[in-house]
Design a protein that fits this description.
Helix content is 64%, strand content 9%. It has 20 helices and ten strands. The strands form two sheets. Strands 6-7-8-3-9-10 form a six-stranded mixed sheet, with helices on both faces. A four-stranded antiparallel sheet has the order 2-1-4-5, with no helix packed on it. β4 and β5 form a beta hairpin. α19 packs across α20. The two termini are 44 Å apart. It binds adenosine-5'-diphosphate and magnesium ion. Magnesium ion (MG) binds next to α12.
Length: 601
């Protein structure tokens, strides 16, 4: 089974909105698991939230006490009691403030730490996913999942539980006080709640969908920017700045549209709830006034009642806030989990072995491969034996599958049928790291990382000393040009090595492989894009590198593979013929035709 099957079942591929918004059981558990390392901080945070909520409720009760005493004034005693209660309230405010500060600082930090952990986990996961995954993905979307999406989560992580504790306690407490003061008046308040619940439910759903769209759109924007900027040199050479700007404007507009939907639904949701609470206050004032006239309520009670209604409004507001946070966070979490749940399709087998020494016998046995189930086979039933230390050239027309054949050896892709053996062991039974450590790959398009020359060579072996780096560079014919750079080995080479020529980049990539020193070497059109002089220099280092290693060379110019011990010719039907240059020319087959054609050019 190719990696594609596993990926195809994932909802990230589902761009038509068929995404499930409710967290499944596994995801809920996963969500909660991020709290685990911060349990103590979490409970301290909750305790402070509890204190905040209790002190909030106590203050109107104190106010009630004071107003009652003012009305029933009986001299000096009352004055003292008012002072005393004032002091109590001051104390309460102090406690309230301290608890609130803890929640605001430590609570936020807890969320940030959890976000940090998630980001770390996702990045490590990215490193494990295979070529097949990245073939289908946009880098910008993957980056957005790592940055924007997880930030929304940090907020939810800490405000979520806190808001639930504070608002439900305040709500129940305020309601109990209301009922104890005047049950009939409390009933009026209570009547509002079911209406508000239905209202909130409806707009909540709209908000959810809009938020998810907006998260996807920001990912699209990032992908677009990433693509345009990475290709900025092509853009400029074709003077297609306006085309890129138009593409960007399209994405930008779609994002704006999704923001509009989000704000609209948020406005309805949030402001609607606020309006309901105001209606509630008005109803209490009107009906409270009437009740006072009837004589079943006194003024201090109405004041306390109104203060409690204000407290009741607070949890409703908080609930609105929480819902928005929750939806934003969950939209991010869903996107996060979609990627995290993609199983790396190429992994170590359980009993994978780590061979001590690799000689470099490579054997393809009846290998069939296709990139995707809906595309044709690149190989069908292909068999090929390469002996340790042999120098084999692979030739064939462009697109025939030479690169593909080579990327199967380090298991960048998994074969669909048959097997590939390294020293007699199926590569699926060798630990991936051991396998790849023993294969050196030099390709036509060199990827260099931002950093210095030395950093980039050291990529071949992160433990290499400076002296080893220089030796590798010398073997790769790179030392001379590196020394001519302004800062020698410490010269910064710019993003992707833009400050170097093609031949220079290629020599650095060869130095990397010298440092890695693998028993198996694959050279995939490494010199095809270079001028004659660079090609000769690289050809020389290649021949040195190939000494005592199994080497597979793919070359476009047949003159460069004349010296190969064996030339393997690939055609649509698989391996068409193989032999030395002289044998194949004498045979007068495909190779002879290709060779004569190139000679006559
Ligand atoms: P060559 O190196 O001989 O020029 P390749 O091995 O690169 O050819 O490509 C062989 C075939 O596989 C081509 O038809 C190409 O379009 C297809 N192909 C190459 N890479 C991928 C990929 N990552 N996903 C899907 N198809 C691919
Ligand atoms: Mg190729």
């Amino acid at each position: 089974m190719s990696g594609f099957d596993i990926l195809a079942a994932r909802p990230i591929w589902n761009r038509n909105g068929r995404v499930n918004f409710n967290l499944g059981n596994g995801r809920t558990r996963k969500f909660l698991s991020y709290y685990k390392p911060y349990q103590r901080l979490f409970w301290a945070d909750m305790a402070c939230a509890l204190v905040v909520s209790v002190t909030t409720l106590l203050i109107p009760l104190c106010a009630n006490f004071i107003t009652k005493n003012v009305l029933a004034s009986d001299g000096a005693d009352t004055v003292n009691r008012i002072w005393g209660m004032g002091a109590v309230m001051l104390g309460l405010v102090l406690i309230h403030t301290l608890a609130n500060m803890f929640v605001a600082y430590q609570g936020h930090m807890m969320g940030a730490k959890m976000e940090h952990d998630m980001r770390h986990e996702l990045f490590e996961h990215y490193q494990k996913l295979s070529f097949a995954f990245y073939d289908e993905q946009k880098v910008g979307q993957l980056m957005t999942r790592l940055t924007n999406d997880s930030f929304d989560l940090a907020e939810l992580f800490h405000h979520g539980p806190e808001d639930i504790v504070i608002s439900s306690l305040n709500f129940i407490g305020a309601f109990a006080i209301l009922v104890s003061i005047n049950a009939r008046l409390a009933l009026i308040v209570f009547l509002f709640l079911p209406i508000m619940a239905v209202y909130a439910f409806y707009f909540n759903k709209q908000m959810k969908a809009a938020l998810r769209r907006s998260h996807d759109r920001i990912g699209d924007i990032n992908s677009q920017v990433e693509d345009s900027l990475a290709g900025i040199r092509v853009v400029k050479s074709f003077t297609n700045e306006r085309v890129e700007a138009r593409k960007f404007a399209g994405e930008n507009g779609r994002f704006l549209q999704s923001r509009q939907d989000t704000y609209l639904s948020e406005t309805y949701f949030y402001e609607g709830l606020v309006a309901f609470t105001q209606l509630m206050t008005i109803a209490v004032i009107v009906f409270g006034g009437l009740t006072i006239v009837q004589g079943t309520l006194d003024l201090p009670e109405l004041i306390t009642f109104l203060l409690c209604v204000a407290i009741l409004i607070e949890p409703i507001r908080r609930y609105g806030n929480f819902t928005r946070l929750y939806q934003e966070g969950i939209a991010g979490f869903e996107r996060f989990m979609e990627v995290l749940e993609v199983q790396p399709d190429i992994q170590d087998a359980e009993n994978a072995i780590e061979p001590k020494i690799i000689q470099g016998n490579i054997s393809f046995q009846n290998v069939s491969f296709q990139y995707r189930q809906d595309s044709g086979h690149v190989f069908n039933n292909l068999s090929l034996d390469i002996k340790a230390g042999e120098f084999v050239a692979l030739v064939g027309s462009s697109g025939i599958g030479k690169t593909t054949l080579c990327s199967l050896i380090p298991r960048f892709y998994e074969v669909n049928a048959g097997e590939i053996r390294l020293d007699g062991t199926n590569i699926k039974e060798i630990r991936l790291e051991a396998l790849r450590r023993n294969i050196g790959l030099v390709q036509q398009d060199v990827y260099l990382f931002a950093g210095t020359v030395a950093d980039n060579i050291r990529y071949g072996n992160v433990n290499a000393s400076d002296a080893e780096i220089v030796t590798a560079a010398k073997k790769a014919n790179a030392h001379a040009f590196v020394m001519a750079l302004p800062n020698g080995y410490d010269t910064d080479i710019g993003q992707r090595g833009v400050k170097l020529s093609g031949g220079q980049k290629q020599r650095l990539s060869i130095a990397r492989v010298f440092l890695k020193d693998p028993p198996v070497l694959i050279f995939d059109e490494a010199t095809s894009a270079l001028d004659n002089e660079s090609e000769k220099a690289i050809q020389a280092s290649l021949e040195q590198l190939a000494n005592n290693r199994t080497t597979i060379v793919i070359a476009h110019r047949l003159t460069t593979v004349r010296n190969a011990q064996r030339i393997v010719v690939l055609t649509e039907e698989g391996i068409d013929e193989q032999g030395t240059h002289e044998e194949l020319v004498a045979a007068g087959g495909t190779y002879a035709n290709l060779y004569n054609m190139q000679l006559s050019l």
